[in-house]
Write a structure and sequence with these properties.
By secondary structure, the chain is of the alpha/beta class. Helices cover 49% and strands 12% of the residues. It has 7 helices and 7 strands; from the N terminus they run αββαβαβααβαββα. The two termini are 26 Å apart.
Amino acid sequence: METQLQQSQQTEEKIYEEMMKAGVHYGRAKRYTHPSIKNFLLKSNKNIEFFNLKLTLQKLNEVSNYLKQVLAENKKILFVGTTPASQNKIQEIAQALNQYYMTYKWVGGFLTNFQTIQSRLIYFRELLKKEENGEIQNLPPAQRSKVEKELQKLKNLYSGVINLESLPDVIFIVNLAYKQHKTAKREALRMKIPIIALAGSDNDVSNVFLFVPGNDKAPRSIAWQLDYILAKIKT
């Protein structure tokens, strides 16, 4: 019979195989590498960076365990992924965990100017009620068109945070190198909100509470990592 250690090793080997198939090990060209993440990369003569998947898996487990504890304490997580590669999957994991998400674009000042944002969310909820009871439909055509455009804009920006009434306890960001996400990181640091991230080889992970070093650009890689985290949280 196989020992427990042998079974564990086989399970890990299968996970590494899945990670390779999903492209989790791929970084960017070496000229983009950020010094803060170098320790998680393998030494290679090739121009493309490659992640040490042993360290990636270790970090995936750390992040999963931390988020599981956060949820057990009924704390709020804001998931952020506004790149085309991450939008759908970020929304999916946030909804699966009954948490909050922002996928259309990062709203500048969302964390640092949260009181003003709250007034926008209240207005958004009021417009949704008017839409539900038919008030908007009964407006004169020109006014109705204006209100409908405004409502659609609010839906794009705030649908994932419509019921967020206080600052999140944790923010989870996919790809810290993306311009909008750099702003989200700065705001979270200013407000002393712990940052969790999926971080590619070009990411600055300075002052990030926990991060998973791996491919944060490809949809398949992002999906695999988020599916793994979700499965670990659910077990």
